[in-house]
Write a structure and sequence with these properties.
heterodimer, A: Rna Polymerase Sigma Factor, Chain: A, B: mainly beta, 14-stranded mixed sheet, nine-stranded antiparallel sheet, 5 helices
């Protein structure tokens, strides 16, 4: 079904543009507050809806990113409270504040550096390690089934995955530092 | 907690496999040690990026549609629209004037000037006591170009032409670091040793003329046009080679230098007077093809031919000289070898159109005017974000798609000539958000947007469709739907034009600078 969208407000257009431009950072922020949660997409969606509804509260010239992050933070806390099926441990308030402080020090352009660096680092991996990353992060794929397919124990694959991610983190950090971005 | 334990717990937390006891341990560690918290956040960002990277390029059913669409879906009462907007995340200087600017510095390490239509941003090192004046870069300065072309003149006499999209940093008087871009370098006698670095390559000039291509999603390339260079990869095997004129290399994933054909035509060697563009006037036929003119370096690939028909028989009279006429018969469409514009780089397409029928209010799409890219799925319910197409849509309105679908309001299927243009400009590289402006007869259309997805036009796949005129873009080896009507003066600009430039194009049939 087509979703039609129209408006006649220049302010609205500017707002939508800002919101779209911050989606990647907003998602990364939520991931950092909800480690291991399957609810990241739902919380992101809820946060976007609240941002949308509270659009009139945003004052031009103030820190848009800080504003939407505060809304996302509240959405994360609401998810922790309300979803009784959420079994992963929640991050406590003091740690959320510490995470906030680091996020607010970062520039949004870091994310484009990061994406390029990640692309290159993925390229440098061995094919079998790229396959492992793909299996882990592609929806609908499963590490256990993949382990059976290639005849390796799943635990062994998890250990390898851990090493590959550590390598990726180190590689991304190095490349961003080389290009002058904040790591 | 040692380094390995920290890494292990961070990953377990983000995988959702950490125990409650270990989570407490991890939280204490992160609160007490800021460097550990930084490391945790690096893993969180890596997790986010990997999840986003592994979403399907073209979502079926909206799996990776940007979240704003979900907002709309859940809040069906909410509506919004995208039209032309100007943005400035940095100190973005948007230039649409018709003259060049010269520098006035006293031998800075690097002075530059730019072609009309170029959008660029310069950042200088924050620790400079006095910011440099004029169009200059000093050691540590960075320059980013979102569209257009820049000419560099180094103090040593080295000249360079840099094409967008590009991002470079001047590391020293004779060393340029390229994050992205297509650049041609001419190194005069006495300036040997001039160096170009990228994240993958180190290129040292030995007295020569050469080109470098650095793409975010591809392997970096060096093309030697005259003289010699020494090229080395910076990863794994770190292979080095001295290359001579006529040789080109691309680094492969293990750090070797793989031989590729040298493509001098990829590089501009002088500053153009417009944004790079290609123009099909349909006035001249050369070797069975409609001749193309313009300033884009790949112009020789742009000749347009019909796969089945004698193009002389497809000609009719247009607003400016001859036009090309289609009546919906497959095989009439025009094929070129021009790849088109990749990714979500800015672009403008424009042409004159006269349809040979009148569209009903709920009439179907009338095929494409100009388009290119890789079509993953032809179904009507799935719009590909990996093609880009300007077309006449339902109800006879001007439209384009390639990510979102952007449709105007004016029915142009009235049997008269209309000038249609579509201008696309990325808003933010990180999110892939774009802005699209449609013009009908030089006026901005009220645009309705459907199905917003990040635009990612794919031109480099072996089965990508090069630029075609007068038809829709489908899956490889699928016959297209051919336009019914006449088309004249098709322009493809490698950048976003403003309204004055579109109106100039319509009135004078000239690119911006004339």
């Amino acid at each position: 079904m087509l979703v039609s969208m129209k408006s006649h407000s220049t302010e609205l257009q500017a707002f939508v543009k800002l919101l779209l431009a911050h989606q990647t950072a907003l998602r990364a922020y939520i991931v950092s507050l909800m480690p291991g949660s399957d609810d990241v997409e739902d919380v992101l969606q809820d946060a976007n809806i609240i941002i949308w509804e509270k659009m009139s509260n945003f004052q031009e010239g103030t820190n848009f990113r800080a504003w939407i992050f505060s809304i996302a933070r509240n959405s994360v806390k609401a998810q922790f409270r309300d979803n009784k099926r959420f079994l992963s441990p929640s991050v406590d308030a003091e740690l959320i504040q510490a995470i906030d402080e680091i996020w607010h020090q970062r520039e949004s352009r870091d994310l484009s550096f990061r994406q390029r660096a990640l692309d290159r680092c993925l390229e440098e991996l061995k094919q079998k390690h790229r396959d492992l990353i793909r299996v882990r992060y592609t929806k609908g794929t499963n590490l256990e089934i993949y382990a059976q397919q290639i005849g390796r124990p799943a635990d062994s694959l998890r250990t390898t995955l851990s090493r590959v991610r550590a390598k990726l983190r180190s590689c991304v950090k190095g490349r961003i530092a080389m290009e002058g971005g904040a790591v | 907690m040692n380094h390995n334990e920290l890494e292990s717990l961070c990953q377990e937390a983000l995988d959702g496999t950490i125990s409650s006891e270990n989570m407490v341990l991890l939280e204490n560690e992160l609160l007490q040690h800021p460097e550990s918290l930084q490391q945790y956040l690096q893993y969180a960002r890596l997790q986010n990026s990997l999840e986003l990277v592994h979403e399907p390029i073209v979502p079926v059913g909206g799996a990776s549609v940007v979240p704003i669409e979900r907002i709309i879906r859940r809040q069906k009462r909410k509506t919004l629209r995208f039209v032309a907007l100007a943005t400035a995340a940095l100190v973005l200087l948007s230039i649409s004037i018709l003259s060049f600017y010269e520098t006035a510095g006293n031998e800075p390490p690097l002075a530059f000037k730019f072609a009309p239509g170029t959008d660029y941003a310069v950042t200088h090192p924050s620790d400079l006591k006095e910011k440099p004046e004029g169009l200059v870069l000093v050691k540590g300065s960075s320059l980013t170009i979102s569209q257009g072309t820049i000419e560099f003149t180094f103090k040593s006499g080295v000249k360079s032409i840099l094409q967008a999209p590009a991002s470079v940093t001047l590391n020293s008087d004779d060393t340029l670091y390229m994050r992205e871009g297509t650049a041609w370098f001419h190194v005069p006698s006495g300036a040997e040793g001039f160096t170009v670095n990228s994240s993958d390559l180190n290129i040292v000039d030995l007295g020569t003329e050469f080109g470098v291509i650095v793409k975010p999603t591809g392997a970096d390339e060096i093309h030697v046009l005259k003289g010699k260079v020494k090229a080395s990869t910076l990863i794994h095997r770190k292979e080095s080679a001295t290359l001579s004129a006529g040789q080109a290399r691309r680094r492969d994933p293990v750090g070797r230098l793989v031989s590729i054909p040298v493509k001098a035509s990829d590089f501009l060697t002088k500053l153009p007077t417009t944004l790079p563009y290609v123009h099909w006037s349909f006035d001249n036929i050369v070797a069975g093809k409609f001749n193309a003119e313009g300033t884009h370096p790949s112009i020789e690939l742009a000749g347009a031919r019909s796969p089945k028909f004698d193009i002389k028989k497809l000609r009719t009279n247009g607003p400016f000289g001859k036009a090309v006429r289609f009546n919906g018969v497959k095989g009439q469409q025009l094929h070129t070898q021009l790849p088109g514009i990749e990714g979500n780089a800015p672009r403008t397409t424009a042409c004159w159109v006269r349809t040979s029928y009148t569209s009903k209010p709920n009439g179907t799409d009338i095929a494409g005017l100009i388009g290119w890219g890789y079509c993953l799925d032809d179904s009507k319910r799935t719009q590909s974000n990996s093609i880009w197409k300007q077309y006449i849509g339902k109800s006879g309105v001007s439209a384009c798609h390639g990510g979102g679908v952007y449709a105007g309001k004016t029915n142009v299927t009235d049997g008269k000539w209309h000038h249609l243009a579509c201008v696309m400009k990325p808003i933010d590289q990180g999110s892939g958000a774009i802005e699209v402006t449609l013009y009908v007869d030089g006026e901005i259309e009220d645009v309705t947007t459907y199905r917003i997805q990040p635009t990612n036009t794919l031109t480099q796949r072996s089965d990508s469709t090069p630029v075609r005129i007068g038809c829709s873009i489908h899956k490889p080896n699928t016959a297209p739907i051919v336009f019914r009507g006449a088309i004249d003066e098709v322009y493809l600009f490698y950048g976003a034009l403003d309204q004055a430039s579109i109106q100039n194009l319509m009135r004078n049939n000239h690119p911006t600078a004339k």
